[in-house]
Design goal:
Elements lengths: L6 H7 L25 H9 L14 H14 L3 E5 L2 H12 L5 E5 L4 H13 L3 E5 L4 H7 L5 E7 L11 H10 L3 E5 L4 H4 L9 E5 L1 H5 L7 E5 L1 H15 L5 H11 L2 H19 L5 E5 L9 H7 L6 E6 L2 H11 L4 E2 L9 E3 L11 H7 L5 E5 L5 H12 L3
Parallel strand pairs: 2-3, 2-4, 4-5, 5-6, 10-11
Antiparallel strand pairs: 1-7, 6-7, 8-9, 9-12, 11-12
Helix pairs in contact: 1-3, 3-11, 4-5, 4-10, 12-16, 14-16
Length: 394
C-alpha cells in the first residue's frame, strides 16, 4: 500500500500498531518495563534494539513510538523523540547538542522559559549565547562565527508579539557556518509549518498546545534526522528522565486526528477577529501575520500560507485598561496556555514574560496593554462580540 498520504490521512493512521486483538483505537501500553523470552534475548536487546523492541518506558514505549512516528511523518523528518513537556524538548534539543566552549546565536524574542535555558542553564555550563533581532538577517550574519557557532535557535513566530523569522534566510547563514538550525515552531503549528523544507535541522513543539489542543496534558517533541534524534537527543533524554509517558502519548495521538481541522478553523477565526479589531479606536495596534498591515505578511504567507491561530493587540490605557478588558470577558478565558479549543486571553507582561526586566520588555514590544489572544473553536462571531463588549469596559 502506498504511503503517499495527504495530511489528514497521516494524522489518523501513521505509526499505528495493532495487537493481536485488532483494536480500532491505539492501545495504551501502561507498563514500566518489558519481559524477555530468555536471558539471551535480554542481553541482545541491551546490546542493540531491533525494530519494535522495547526495554524500559523511559527509553521507549509502543504508544509513545506511535506518536513519534506520526508527528515525524507530519513534520517531514526522519524521526522524533517525545518529551514530558515543551520545555523538556527545548532543553533536550539544546543541551544534548552543546558542550562547554560552544557558541549559540539566538533570536531575542522568546518565551520566558526559553530565555532561562539560554541565559541561565547554557551559560552555567560554559556555552556562550549571542542574542540578535530575529527579523534582521544582517544581525544573524554578524553574530554567527564559522566553525565556532554550533547552533542557532529561534521561534519561527515569536511569543507574544508574533514576529516572524525568515527560516530559509537564517538556515542558509547557519549552514554556511556549519551550525545546526533548531526551531521552536509552536506558534506556526505543525499544520502551517514549513520549517523543515525551509532548512530547519530540528523542530520543537510543545504538544501541550495545538497537538493536544484541549487542555488535558503537558507534552513536547523534538523532530529531526535519525542521526540527531537517536545519537544525540535520545541518550541525553533517556538518562535524564525527560521522556513522555504512554498515557500522554495516547492523548496526543488522539489530538492529532483532528489537528488539521482544528488549526484551520482556528486560523479562519483568527483572521475574522483580527479584521474586526483592526482600526478600533481603543487599540493602539493589532498584530496578526494574516493581515496585510503586518510588516511580515508576505513572509508569513510564504512560510505558512496562513496567519496562524494567534492574535495580539495593544489596549490604550496600559495595564489597568488591559485588566478591565480581561475581567469583562465572558466566553474567552483568562489563562496562560494557547492552541486550545477554548479561546484564551493572556497578559504577557504580568504572566508569561513577567520575569523579564522592563528594558527587555520594552525592546520586545511587550507593553503593559498587550494582550495575547489564542483563538479557539468557538463561533467567530461570538468571539468578536465578546471582545467588543469587553473593550467597552476599558
Amino acid at each position: 500500500m502506498s504511503k503517499d498520504w495527504k495530511t489528514r490521512t497521516t494524522l489518523v493512521h501513521e505509526g499505528s500498531r495493532r495487537s493481536q486483538y485488532g483494536e480500532m483505537a491505539e492501545a495504551i501500553f501502561l507498563t514500566q518495563g518489558f519481559a524477555y523470552p530468555t536471558a539471551e534475548a535480554a542481553e541482545a536487546r541491551f546490546l542493540k534494539i531491533e525494530g519494535d523492541e522495547f526495554i524500559y518506558a523511559r527509553y521507549g514505549n509502543p504508544t509513545t513510538r506511535m506518536f513519534e512516528e506520526r508527528i515525524a511523518a507530519l513534520e517531514g523528518t526522519e524521526d522524533a523523540f517525545a518529551t514530558a513537556s515543551g520545555m523538556a524538548a527545548v532543553n533536550g534539543a539544546l543541551v544534548s547538542a552543546l558542550r562547554a566552549g560552544d557558541h549559540v546565536v539566538s533570536a531575542r524574542a522568546l518565551f520566558g522559559s526559553c530565555l532561562y535555558i539560554l541565559e541561565e542553564v547554557l551559560g552555567r555550563y560554559g556555552v556562550e549565547v549571542t542574542f540578535v533581532e530575529g527579523a534582521d538577517l544582517d544581525q544573524w550574519r554578524a553574530a554567527v562565527r564559522p566553525g565556532v557557532t554550533k547552533a542557532v535557535f529561534f521561534e519561527s513566530m515569536s511569543n507574544p508579539t508574533l514576529e516572524l523569522v525568515d527560516i530559509r534566510g537564517v538556515a542558509d547563514i547557519a549552514h554556511a557556518a556549519g551550525a545546526l538550525v533548531i526551531v521552536d515552531n509552536v506558534f506556526s503549528t505543525p499544520i502551517f509549518s514549513r520549517a523543515v523544507e525551509l532548512g530547519a535541522d530540528a523542530v520543537i513543539y510543545s504538544t501541550t498546545k495545538h497537538i493536544d489542543g484541549q487542555g488535558r496534558a503537558l507534552g513536547g517533541v523534538i523532530c529531526g534526522t535519525t542521526e540527531f534524534i537517536r545519537k544525540t537527543v535520545e541518550p541525553y533524554m533517556k538518562h535524564t528522565g525527560g521522556s513522555m509517558s504512554p498515557f500522554t502519548a495516547w492523548i496526543m495521538l488522539n489530538g492529532m486526528a483532528t489537528l488539521d481541522l482544528r488549526c484551520r478553523a482556528m486560523a479562519d477565526s483568527a483572521l475574522t477577529v483580527a479584521q474586526a479589531l483592526e482600526g478600533d479606536a481603543r487599540l493602539s495596534r493589532v498584530i496578526f501575520p494574516g493581515l496585510a498591515s503586518h510588516p511580515q505578511h508576505a513572509l508569513a504567507m510564504e512560510q505558512m500560507g496562513s496567519g496562524g491561530t494567534m492574535v495580539a493587540f495593544d489596549i490604550k490605557g496600559g495595564k489597568e485598561a488591559a485588566f478591565r478588558f480581561m475581567n469583562a470577558l465572558e466566553i474567552i478565558k483568562i489563562s496562560n496556555n494557547l492552541g486550545d479549543a477554548k479561546s484564551i486571553a493572556t497578559h504577557p507582561a504580568t504572566t508569561t514574560h513577567q520575569r523579564l526586566p522592563q528594558d527587555q520588555k520594552d525592546l520586545l514590544g511587550i507593553t503593559p496593554g498587550l494582550i495575547r489572544f489564542s483563538v479557539g473553536l468557538e463561533d467567530a462571531g461570538d468571539l468578536v462580540a465578546d471582545l467588543k463588549n469587553a473593550l467597552a469596559a476599558v
